[in-house]
Amino acid sequence: MGIVHGINNIFNIYFFLIILRIFLSWIPSIQWEKQPWLTLQEITDIYLNLFRRWIPPIGGLDFSPIVALIVLQILQNVIIYMILGIKG
């Protein structure tokens, strides 16, 4: 069960980082070219850009992070289910 716990923690940390990125994007004074914001942007944009290519902003609002978070949760559940299925 240790590996399942570890994988769950990795997904949960990444989920939290994306949520943090979303909330910080609402603050116009954030300087994304400075640390630690640059690292946060680089880590999360790798994943978020996959969805930004397919989901354009609607009325100036970017809904791609919502879809990205839902897909991340589904992916987490599938991977955990596969690991538990292999062990069990």
Overview of this protein structure:
The chain is mostly helical and 88 residues long. It has a domain at 1-56. The chain contains 3 helices and no strands. The longest helix is centred in the last third of the chain and has 24 residues, at 64-87. The protein starts with a helix and ends with a helix. 6% of the residues are buried.
Question: What layout of secondary structure does this protein have?
Answer:
Layout: H1 2-24, H2 37-52, H3 64-87
Helix pairs in contact: 1-2, 1-3, 2-3
Sum this structure up briefly.
The chain is mainly α.
Keywords:
mainly alpha; 88 residues
Instruction: Sum up the overall morphology in one term.
Output: globular
Number of separate strands: 0
Q: Radius of gyration from the CA trace?
A: 15 Å
Structural class: mainly alpha
Major sheet characteristics: none
Distance between the termini: 11 Å
| H/E series | HHH
The total of helices stands at 3
Rounded average pLDDT? 93
Helix content: over 70%
Assess the beta-strand content as a share of residues. Answer: under 5%
Low-confidence stretches: none
